[in-house]
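Review form for a predicted model. The reviewer records the input and the model, then writes brief findings.
Reviewer: anonymous (R2)
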Amino acid sequence: MSATQFNGRDRLISLLSRTPLIGPTARAVTRSSLMGRLLSRWRFRNSSAYWERRYIEGGSSGSGSYGRLAQFKAETLNAFVDRTGIRSVIEFGCGDGALLAYLVRHKGVDGRGMELSQSGVNACVGHGLSVIQGDADRDLAAYPTGAFDVVVLSQTLQATREPRKVLETLVRIGRRAIVSFPNFGFWRIRLHLMFCGRMPVSHLLMHPWYDTPNIHLCTIRDFVAMCDEIGVGVERSLTLDRHGQPYSLDPHGSLANLLAEQSVFVLSERRG
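Model under review:
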């Protein structure tokens, strides 16, 4: 157990022990072997630890790398390659490298990647990909301006500590950035919060609140407002259902924010 984890537990025990009426009971309970085992399991799980555990348990990098959403992103990148002559792509939070491997093998691009978990990096290297271990919150600043034609951040923005800073950096180091994320304004999520009063668990948000890498959930309207605020241009955007099927809805409108379960944005830095 780390010093941070111990201090957090120790502070709680100390507080309970000093509380009138319940103090003696709290001290007795914390001395029991059962409570000791329960408290020893109370620990902060950061994103790296979460993904390490997921891969070790046989999980994949999720809906962003497989299924209809991954197919849509691949098709979008294919269109870019054919239309604009894209030659270099980097994906941050590339997971086990499924999407990146597709682009390298089928479109012949120079594909690079960065992944937080060592297990994910190992899987990528197993695919023959050039991927390094790194943290999008800390390590993006090292990349030079305009280093890549396209930067991909798939279902990862909500797991970063500073999403605004990450987004600003994405459009700096790439001519375009493709960003996808789950929409927390989706109508099922709203109803679940209203009638159940608990954080929702869904196909895209599949983890309970106490064991999730998603620390900065947002709605489509939140995301668009942030892009406007920091001067990031939206070249194209699509609203999707959970399977990656597109809706014919304007992502800037209220209906998209209500009906779409996820969204994909093609972004660029506004110049001049």
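Findings: Confidence is low (pLDDT under 50) at residues 1-10, 25-45.
Further findings: The chain is about 45% helix and 20% strand.
Recommendation: see findings above.
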